[in-house]
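Sequence, please.
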């Protein structure tokens, strides 16, 4: 099935969460591939090809969700250290743009906002958005718990 450009201006998912760890620590935690297995739901395998400057780096993730194993391919679209990390990721059914924005609330507290847009998809992309909102919400909760636990180890 061919993916068609959706061109949605409105994100299908926006959620903010407070994390008890410094902003730079949270940013590094999210952007380091080695830590993804701690918070990305269903992650079985991940490979990546890095480029200088990070933007343009590519990755492939194998995820097992709802009993099905799917391969997702992605690339880094934007990378501003300690401030913003944006990726494009998709499988054979749908492609997303996901952005993480970081705000310091206090020296050891970060407000993280995750925003996701559908950029390509099949005619069923709105159904996928329903399930993907649930996955992204659970992922944010797991990200918070994992980042806080990792920060406590190094604090």
């Amino acid at each position: 099935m061919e993916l068609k450009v959706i061109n949605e201006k409105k994100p299908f998912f926006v959620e903010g969460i407070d994390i008890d760890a410094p902003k730079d620590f949270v940013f590094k935690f999210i952007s380091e591939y080695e830590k993804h297995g701690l918070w990305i739901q269903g992650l079985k395998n991940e490979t990546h090809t890095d480029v200088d400057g990070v933007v343009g780096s590519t990755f492939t993730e194998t995820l097992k969700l709802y009993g099905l194993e799917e391969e997702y391919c992605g690339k880094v679209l934007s990378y501003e250290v300690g401030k913003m990390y944006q990726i494009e990721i998709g499988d054979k059914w749908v492609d997303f743009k996901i952005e993480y924005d970081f705000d310091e609330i206090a020296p050891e507290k970060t407000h993280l906002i995750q925003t996701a847009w559908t950029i390509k998809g099949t005619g069923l992309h709105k159904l996928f958005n329903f399930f993907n909102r649930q996955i992204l919400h659970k992922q944010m909760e797991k990200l918070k718990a994992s980042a806080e636990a990792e920060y406590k180890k190094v604090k």
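The beta strands are 4-5, 13-19, 43-49, 58-65, 68-80, 84-90, 94-106, 109-121.
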